[in-house]
Amino acid sequence: PFDVLVVGGGPAGAAAAIYAARKGIRTGIAAERFGGQVLDTMAIENFISVPHTEGPKLAAALEQHVKDYAVEIMNLQTATKLVPGTDGFTRIELASGATLSARTVILSTGARWRQMGVPGEAEYRNKGVAYCPHCDGPLFKGKRVAVIGGGNSGVEAAIDLAGIVAQVTLIEFDGKLRADAVLQAKLRSLPNVTVLTSAQTTEVHGDGSRVVGLSYKDRATGETQRIALEGIFVQIGLVPNTEWLKGSLALSPRGEIEVDAHGRTSVPGVFAAGDATTAPYKQIIIAMGEGAKVALSAFDHLIRQVPA
Ligand code: FAD
User: Which sites bind NAD(+) (predicted)?
Assistant: First the structure.
């Protein structure tokens, strides 16, 4: 069995595996796709001390750094169930049929942005279609952007972007915004923001290399309208990859793994880090910090166990 078994090979999982292995304990990492969301990212400019890098490059560096240690890497493995044990071991069942057993488990299965599912969205991802205002906002300085979604994250994104870009159009499907009243009031006080409600985005337009506009259907009149712009931030939900954990440990109403300040979950010996958890602000540097932190928590847990 492993002393520490990490499930998920993104920034959080890689950091956790390295921190655990540096304690000289038996460490394994199982991941569906080593690198995680970083693999889908183009420019990364907020990974502090590295002014500019690209996703695939950072993902390769993550993997290489993990390989520098005695970590058993199990890539292309999907965890399907977590079974807390009464014998001091937690078991992780894999889609392959195998079961892994470990004294401590670190869950770092990340999250995925919900997509609009309209023509052009996938084609122009990273070419004007963006999901993270903290990451990509500055790339649109002085340009025109739309934010899709009128919940808290959409309205926060619109307020944030309004300070950077020339013009923001917030597009909400429903008849009204769902964000907190204080955010809506702030939004409406901004001169360069237009709010469209009852508007269904139907297509992302591009010129072959970049986004040039979008179309939406005015749900009140049924008419389709077209807006010229350079960027589209999709803010209709970040979904944690935790469906497989339902019933095994405590999840928030949004499906995030509930963690305390030490990254402990509701199951003793099981820890979690990164975008899959309730820890706020989903970023690479934060996921790495949380991964490092929970590996130290797991080690603290291990040294308190009475030898069997
Ligand atoms: P993830 O990166 O999501 O990794 C999750 C890991 O778990 C993967 O290896 C996955 O395959 C694995 N996994 C999932 N389910 C299972 C399972 N059941 N069994 C086994 N393995 C599983 N952040 C920034 O700081 N700067 C940026 O510029 C930036 N740009 C971004 C651009 C895009 C397009 C996207 C999508 C995100 C961007 N982010 C950026 C956010 C950043 O990528 C995430 O915050 C970060 O990757 C989270 O790390 P994580 O390790 O928690 O999860």
Answer: 144-158
